[in-house]
Records
---
Amino acid sequence: MKQISFRILGPLEVAVGGQAIPLGGPKPRMLLAALLLQPGVVVSTDLLVDVLWPEAAPRSAAANIRTYVHSLRRRLAECDADLAERIQSRASGYILTASPDELDHVRFDNLATAAQQALERKEPENALAHLDRADALWRGDVLEGLAHDHTWDPVVARLDALRLAVQERRLKVRIQLGRCAEAIVELRGLVAEHPLREELWQQLIIALHAIGRKAEALEAYHQAERVLRQELNAPPGPRLREMRAKLMAAVTAKPVAARPVQRAPVCQLPLDLPDFTGRDDVVDKMVGLLRARRESGTPSVTVLSGAPGVGKSTIAVRVAHTVRDEFPDGQLHINLAGTSSTPRAPMGVLEELLHALGVTDAGMPREERERSALLRSRLASARMCVILDDAGSAAQVRPLLPGAGACSVLVTSRVRMPDLAVATAVDVDLLPEEEAGKLLAGIIGEHRVAVEPDSAADILRHCGYLPLAIRVVGAKLTHRSGWTLRMLASRLRDERRRLDELRVGDLAVRASVTLSYDLLPPDAARAFRGLGALGPVTFPGWVVAALLGREEADEILDTLVDAHLVALVGSDGTGQPRYRMHDLLRCYAVDMASEEETRPAVRRVLRAYLGMAVEAAQRMPIHFFGIFRTDDHDPGPLPLDADYLLTDPTAWLEGERHTGVAAIALAAEHGFDDLAWRLAIAFTPYFDLRGHQDDWRHTHTVALAAARRAGSVTGQAIVLRNLGQLDLYLDAYTHSLASFDESLRLFELAGDELGAAIAQAGVGTVMRIRGDESALDLSQAALARFVAVGDKHGEAVVRISIGMIWMKKGCYATAGRWFDDALELSAEIGDRHREAHALKRVALLHQHRGNLAAARELMQRAIAIFDELDDDHCVGYANQSLGELCLHSGDLAHAQLLLVNSLSVHRRNGDRRSEAEVSELLGELHQALSQPERARRYAERALEIWRELSARPQESALAVRLQEAAESTYGVVATA
């Protein structure tokens, strides 16, 4: 087995065979860190959830943790199969096993102990060797770059304290061995980093004095004295004061303290924009925070992060100007160039800051740590506001921060900085529509916006409410007074040229985005380009993995989110986060992508969606009477946590509804016709259950054209059958019959008996509703086909349909046998949905026979099942039947409640036939309640619908009843 090393004394790292291996994004790395801090101990899942999601854990937290563990184990196994067993699951959590030599922090502890034992044995050279090896294990701060959980504090604090103790002991031994020059170099760095640690100052003074640099030793004492008084308001300890007395005796010339130079307060703030608009909530929040910290005497650090062009720097400058009088010692402004190709190093920035604070070149420390310590000392007694603009990382900012005092630092960055623990994070979002409108009006003049308000709204929408884009169009319109807003809106409408239009002078959205894009790692840049090709949709996290052809890509998504190139916009019904790209970022991504790259990436995403949609349809609690997958179904790999995502398949389909509809159009647009029609039929069970008939129509129009282009007879047959069903729901019987007939022909041509049975059942249903005598023969023929292919679900459906034909003929005994057979068969195969339908029909049979009590009981049982299956559509129809029963049994209050609810469902679903039936029943109800006007309005609405549907028998019967009611109520003859 290859040698492995787990390293936390610095950035988290795992090396196998001497080579570091990739660990994934922040979440897997934090999980591994939590396990490494307690090696050999089971870390509970609850604790890991708190570590990974300190504010609010998603519903999928446990599943996500399993995914992260799987990812870590896979990465270890790629190096050596046996290494995967280092991380194991237990009943209550997870455990990491490793030997002491494989853990750098345990090796460090052991080396420190060995050094102490060597010193006790009077073996300084041996002790120094152990101490050198221990110090060499450190590559930075403990778990540098990771956001620390509060539960880690004791371990991290212990390691930090032990590190400092080892460094002190190591330097003390060096000085004892006469290696003072080497020790002085390191001691200067350590006192700059830990200026309040008197032991370090003592060692530095001893080392300088030992090699004859007595003046420098005395200066070191004075420096220690200044730091301790400024930061602790305390004099040096007795040991340091004793050393000073010895030094004073040895130095003949007492140094004369330089007189302080009075300096005017420095103010480097850029101009506060006169047309600054909105952002009151952000500005007020930040001003309040700065004032509160200033009054408490503690420094404040605020990081404003957001997408390119969102206005972070403008807000920081506005806040600094607002509180300028409260920071009388000055305001500093430094551009860190974090998004440039050459971000500024802290060393150079510190020099600029110290120069601004009056430090001369002669007094400028040579080391970064010394400069940082001097900056902290200067800021500790000052009241200053510092803007660090365009920061690239927390590491770039950290050396520039105050350690004490009442200074405030405003950091702007395009990336989030969770590893800057001392900072308050403020996300800067897009402008609200109203504030965006005020900004545009403030630039071009309110009169131009008032003249063309609709075009102004279009411009703002095309700009995506991004302040930089609004300023660009505002500048264009200001310098082109002859342009109308309508003309510019028209030019912005074309996404392919939109970014070209959003440029004026040195203001350009494209250039701004490029700065962020150029900083992305290659895989993140590829994902960014691929996401642009998906269109203006929200998407779940697993889509990024599908785009890249990976099992998981959480770290890539985290990179894009932290860079504000992808936005977290909420969660869906399954608790999964949803993401979206800003429209202008999407346009940029499309511009940067090539067809050769995006086409296969889009296909992978569409295949994954197909696999998920088919699996969700398969798991839905209601058996769909139709075909949503074919035998040659070939989806792509499912996401790693597909089982969890589909725990509630209907909720998953609800969450993906709009993205799924867009995916069907996207598939057709890219020429993936086979995927287009397959995706459409996979979503149909959900459209049917929830009554999303507009989506159903739109997707199947696209799907039918795609199936025809692909030359798929089966695809055309399925899509036409579904369209026939949709038209049946909408009472468009002519169109429905045409679709069912053509579907039947195509199924027979393809030799698909199951499909033919479903289509033929649809033809029979249309004929039954129309009162055509052929309905019985057609339904029995469909039944024979279902029996032949062994589809008992379809058999139950058609048995109910045949029973309804006999019931309509008045042959109640025969109808009852067919309903009973369907009920028995549904129970046998566990089809609760079909069982409820059979119960409903048996209830109607009892109603026709006059047994209202039994009818009502059975109808309530049916409604309970529909309710249990979350089928609002069928609950609406069952409420109609139960409402009719209550009406005829005299329970008018209950009848009214049921019928009004049912009418609402029918109107939402576009079922006009049922709407007419319920309107008639409500007319009867209000007639019984002696409310003739309301009764007449409902009846007239029903009559109007019957006429539109060309339902002559219903129209004639209702017209007669209306006339009779009018004669009895008003004594006049009504005209209908």
Note: The chain is about 65% helix and 5% strand.
---
Amino acid sequence: MSNTIPERLRSGGAPAMRGIARRAATAALAVLLVWGQVPAVAWAEAASAESSSAANAQLQGSHASSGDASSGDSSDAANAEQTDDAAGAEQASDAQADEGQQDASESADNITGAADANPNAADGNTTSADGTASGQTEGSDQPADSAENGSTAALDDEDQQVAVSVSIYGMSASGDAEEWLAPYEVTLDEGQTAEDALVQALEENSIAYDATPSEYGLYFQSITSPFDAGNTLSYDGSNYWQFLVDGASASTGASSEVVTEGASYALVFGSTGELPSMVRATFEVYGIDASGNPEVWTTDSLSVEKGSTAAELTERMLDAAGIAYDAEESTYGWYLNSMTSSDGRVLAWDEATGAYWQLWVNGAASDAGASSVTVEDGMSIAWYYAAYGAEYPENGVVADPDAEQPDWEGAYGFGQGPTTAETPAGDAEESWVSKIKDVTDWQTNVSDPLVAHGRVYICAGSQLIMMDAATGKELGRATLVEKVDSIARMIMVDGLIIVPVHNGRLQALTADTLSTVWYTDALPAHEQGGDQQALGSLTVEGGYLYFATASASWSSSYNGYLLCVDIKTGDVVWQRESTQSGFYWAGAAVSGSWAVIADDAGTVTVFNRETGETASTLALDAGSRSQVVNGTDAGTFIVVTKDGCLHKIAVDSRTGVAVELGSVKFGSSSTSTPVVAGGKVYVGGASLESYANSWGSTSYYGTIAVIDEASLAIEYRIISTEDGYLPAAVQASPLVSQQGGSTYVYFTCNITPGGVYRYRVGDKQAELIYTPAEGQQNYCMASVVCGSDGTLYYINDSGNLFAIKGTSSPSGDGGDTPEKGPSESDKVPGDTGTVSENGDDEAAGRRPAGAVSPALQPLAASNGDAATSDDEALEGAAADGSDAEEQASASARATSALASDAAAERGLPSWVPVAGIVVGVCGLAAIGIYLATVRKRS
């Protein structure tokens, strides 16, 4: 091979390389030129996108790490517990096997599994613990981080869960069949066996048993009655413990029966291989507490052998509940003399009151004795300690119209206007915290707190709790006829606590002893919307109470009722149905002969207070989910609608005809009940300013607005603190405190951590004055209330009740003293409403507020005219009942907050686009010089 360089390379190589270099230099200069000409705003957008991506990654990473750690801890604990249980069972089985106690009567019906399956059962239980922990996280109504953790911990196909039921039927000492364990649901992994289900059910219900392994599986030698420790049943020559599947004798042992979804397994002591003939009944005992108020001592249901009497059922249930009793057989049959309460009080015949233990069957006093009543399927058996002729208690509640009431005048509760109490004007600290319910208990609703006469009242489920306002110590509790709904706003009037409860009912209790004085009947449910919900506010005027309900969901309402109730007697004076829409978070305001309320469809109704007849209606552009409040002038009212508009309405004192005087838009949405004080209106909502969240939709910040009542001019519209924007909508009613020449507004934002904010009117920003401890943080829609000493009380979705007190003198915004009226520099430009002297609708136009809080710029500003966006914002801010939507909203808000922080920290420096322009210009000049030189040479 020749080493000579080809001629074409020798002659053309250098020019070729120079051409390549020229092209590369030209391309580089062109890139620099383009880079330099990109507008600065484009670089800012790129920086924002980069920061948003980084924030999303950070958010997901933090969720994943925290979720994994939590899941791992719970799974490890479950694994340890299950492994210990399995080891204990194996040890017990080995000991019994050594004793060699195998009865010749062993049969295939009694075989419950192969001995070598025990290690697998233990492994299966450990896997089940893992799976159950993951399943609970995935299915629970938790914030977004829990939801993400649950989704990442989804079970594999081989670990899918199977739910089955287990029942145990023994015999009483007299030989009658007894249900020792009602159908009990057990969750197992696919591939586990009926033996696993039986063992798990026995152990979880603490039912003692003796079982030994055999070559065919576990053999249950004996099981002890959970009602009578002295009644242990084992093979007696004819009866033994039989294994049944779906009510029929099994053809295989339980260890060979792989669990299937919905299957029912039973252990029956007998010889026929059949389930005993049973009937199920409910059983209740209503005694009295130390104050003489009715209370529930026990309530349960049980299956007994067909033909059993109420006396036999009573003995069984009292023994199971651990209630001591004295009964005897007489010529008239079985007679219950006395029962003893858990605190040692013996209740027997009381000559002074005429009270004795009465038998009630299916809600009516029985004419026959307990030994003469045969229990039938579905029957209700109850014992009630009361005098002859007493009414049957409802949920353990008996009304006593003659109950002594404390002489406490005045009305307290939601919508009572401003306060002059010395609320925290400077630093604030936690006074006490009381756990009202567990954060994972999503079935129990908690009311807004009510503070009066040194007490705090709060409802949890069907319980009203009274606490010492200074210490949080529980002073007493009472049972309600129904549970409270998701929002419940109690009031106190003339020594009575009036509680709105489910099915559109009201219950009045004495404020000192919590004795029930009266309660109203349930209102009719709607075919589509379901039960009536008591979500609104209560209005008191002239000895009467005005109250409204809704049959509704988070986004729609179907109908509702408006009622007038006599406060003293509980009698319903009149009742009207709204067939078009319900009253969701709504309440009435009263002036003269008229009362005014707004519904979920945006219709304002003026009705006669005495008759309930409609005098006039007024249609607004959006629905309302807040209470109507009185204006300063007689006959004027303030209404807030869901689109973030505040309306001023006047009602003619003679005719009841309503006209709109004007309106102003202060936010993108609102469900906040306003407060009128000193010619100003204070109201919360979602901001007009918006930002693009990580889900590709629009979200809003929170806002507090101060509006001049006469002109409807927005004097202050606050959307930020020194740490950034208010993180979410202000949905509750603000607490307004006027003290020391200043006005303070306290509010919450419906997002974690669920703390308390304060705004001093005249300042440029609000401030966060209290943040709950980490385990007590959650969303918050409840209003902040205060006691006479200025202590703040509120509750968030963690189930904790917080008491917050001030610790220091007032602190302003950078030391500024707030103005008595807004200065020109602090006023919000352009935020003026239109007021019509004659109520002309055209004159009452809406002018959107477009100002931005000082020193803060949103990613996008709403023009205040997007109705669809307003509705979407309302649904998200109102914490939709759907788990997925609530979690998505939480994740979006958290992501946007992190994105804002990341943008501030990682945004490109301001000199970068300037440098690009300089380089680009230099590049143009260099290209021009180069091209001129090339032409000269050529």
Note: The radius of gyration is 36 Å.
---
Amino acid sequence: MSSYKVQKKLWNKGRRRAVRPFKGLSFLMAILFIVCCVALYIVEWFPMSFDLVTDSSRYTIKNPNPNAQYFQSDFASDEERVEYGKQLSQTVEAEGATLLKNDGDALPLPAGAKVSLIGNASTNPVYGGTGSAGLDTSEVKTFKQALEDNGFKVNSDLWSFYTEGAGAEYSRKAPSGMVASAEDTYSANEVPLSAYGDAEWNSMAEYGDAAIMVVSRVGGEGADLPSDTTDAESAGYLGLDNNERDMLKKLKELKEAGKVSRIIVLLNSSNSIQLDFLSYPAYDVDAVMWVGGMGGQGISAVADILSGLVNPSGRLTDAFLADNTTSPAMANFGSWDYANAEEAGLDKYNGNYVIYQEGIYVGYRYYETRYEDYVMGTGNAGSYDYAADVAFPFGSGLSYTTFGYSNMQVTHDSASDTYKVQLDVTNTGSVAGKHTVEVFGQSPYTDYDRANDVEKSSVQLVGFDKTDELQPGETETVVVSVSGADLASYDAKGAKTYILDAGDYRLTVAADAHAAANNFLAAKGYTPAATDGRMDAAGDASLVYTWNNPVLDTTTYATSAKTGAQITNQFGDADINAYEGASEDGVTYLSRADWDGTFPREVVKLTATEALVKELAYSRYETGSYTGEYLNASMPTLGAKNGLKAMNLQGKDFDNPMWDELLDQMTADDMAYLLGSAFHYTQPIESIDLTGTRDENGPTGLTTTLFGGKKTNVKTMGLPSEDVMGATYNTDLLNDVGRVIGNDCIAAGVSFLYGPGANIHRTSYSGRNFEYFSEDGFLSGKLLAAECAGIESKGAHVMIKHFALNDQELDRSGICVWANEQAIREVYLKAFEAAFTEADANGVMSSYSRVGAHWNGADHGMIDGVLRGEWGCKGAVITDNSALNNHWMDGPDSVLAGADLFDSMTEIEYDQLLKHTKDPVVVSAMRDSCHRVIYSIVNSLAVNGMDVNSEVDAHDPGYLAATKAATSGTGALTVLFIVLGCKRRIAYGRANPKPRKANYVA
């Protein structure tokens, strides 16, 4: 090699050596910079999610006032609060568990009885549902422990078989994640008889005072329960599977052989299990008790009832059926694509629908009304067999004692339009117990109704109360108030408001809905003998109060008693028969004018018209469809320097003029940030010194299992499922439940509670029935109002979910729910109404679903028309959780309809609102939304520790500041090392001139 080439090679090598450290460092920093950029993008796209996981704060309160405690705990310590909550949770189960069958006084069990727990489900019971209502079960007792605590001796050999032996290989199959899907497997998967050996059967002879079989089913968020699985004789997942049926046959054999004295079945499910097996001669069940989802402490209450320490007093919140498929909602329970969905460019978020073809006839309203028409020979009821459909009526439940009624009187207070139903309730049995008094009403079904498509249930719950614990022979006088408004019916076609028909109205006190139906029939002169046995039992006409309304009244209930607003149609565009953009498909709603001719038997097929496709657009505002009150709005004042703080408005009326001055200080960006970025938090706003809040789920109490960090990881009540709460029929108890939830919120610093739930058990198969009280809107509404009043009393604001028509999980994201206005109002909205008109609740969480073509969270009739206009809600409305694909949950559409916050994991809605900060229409709507949100915050526990001198310093949370610093730092270092590398390269060249070929002789 020539001398030149050698020198050049050495020179290049030296230069590389000089530059190499900076080249390597710049490359490394560049990689780290890219990583940090990606990390920064992610944490800024999912900001609240990371705040939740890291328990971070975006603000600091300057000049706090520790003595300014507007909402304080009722407990001296967290330990006292937790212990009280545990006892209260147990009390809820004790009053909600419902005894359905008790042949031969099989229950309570003898003291010290030796019992066998039957089924793997007895070792793995259902405490609640999955999803946003998940609860911590790490400290719950087992059935074995609970029974032993009551002095029973439990078959340990059989228990070990289920927990450690061959029986442990079998367990209930159900979704285990946060949110289920339609593809998940559901199966009871009970232990087959072939897995048992002689040891297990022989052990039962020693522990044969009772065989206690637990039948468990679980539901959860994201999917409904299958009704067509093949491992059950009928009813899909809610029917007993073959292994469970085989076990019942085996238990009967053991009973006949004298090895088992009694067979007890516990129904451990919030979805009503089909009870056809109780009428089969192959089984011989002595007692059945429904226990629902038992919560953290309920299992002890169940044991207390079995022992007789507690006398059961629960009443069913749903009709329990012998055949679940007979519900008229079943034909249209599911999701169907519009016939031309693909051709019309519709997708899974706007291309499917469900029709509530059953109208108002949900649950007992169908069964009791068709029964009455069958008895009277009206309505083309056909050869209706009530007993083949219904195993236990709505409102039914047994006790270990008996009760009698006397001295029933009804008076009407015209000033309040209230009927006072008074009667004496006497414990006529031998043990102490509580009793639920149920008052049912009946409105006349008239020619006017038939002509105007107004439907009437022959029986509807209109009042209830629960006695104190009565000793044997003790009497309590009970007074139940019935509002005249609860006897009115909605007439969408004729008067377009609530009406009171001309004709006879009736009230009765009855043990359940079916007894009420028979009482009404008796008052009309019907008897079993006079109807050739169509009437299945004699009613008690002495317990019926009748009065006559002489003329049709279309005005008394046409005005909101809460707000004075006129009540008129809001949901014409949700009724496929009234919607102007509908095709000619139409729907025949179930009608008592022609039961057989209108009963739903197949899915209603719909085609999306051009007009409907336009309405189904992800953003109606963007497509020019908005015609509301903000249409010609001027840009409001923004960024004013008025010197007000949010705390200056604490305690001020919602309509106080100072609110305008405060809102003038906000910028449009402030508004978009406050409203659009509210996933489990609301954001601090420095311009008005508004504190942020921490918010959390709570359909069955504050859901601590979803908490991300230690600061909010407090112990709270593990309540039984909402249907168990409903079955207590005890508003005082539910108010105390709410009060303790409020105390839990104070302990956790949670200001907005995503709950309670108030949707309807439209069928037995909805995945989230455990989050809702009942199939009955009236019962749901009264219990919800009591619970919300308790929660709100402690400064925690409810966001009742899911508003509205979210009565299934399948395709809940954007599904079109078509229903008539009478059903929407009398069944589905009735469950929410009392919380606002009676308890002044804060607001709601809107559902994923649509009412007709419009997303519920952006439907003017739903939010501005009913919730705010008729019910007077001034609080904050939030969406259900919005993630990556929820583009139909449109920001502008929502605020324009009167909604407010977006529970958005990402910045989708925030970005949508930011795009409209120059648009006076959207900004004016955002301003009103901010008014409601700020009003809620300054009157909540969020401002504990603040006064008018306090200031809010907004800042990045630690993780975000660190990520930004790391991004800036790695970017700067990348540039620095590149620059230093270049300088070193230049310096090397200057100090070491590059060899030139001319200086070397070959």
Note: DSSP finds 25 helices and 29 strands in the chain.
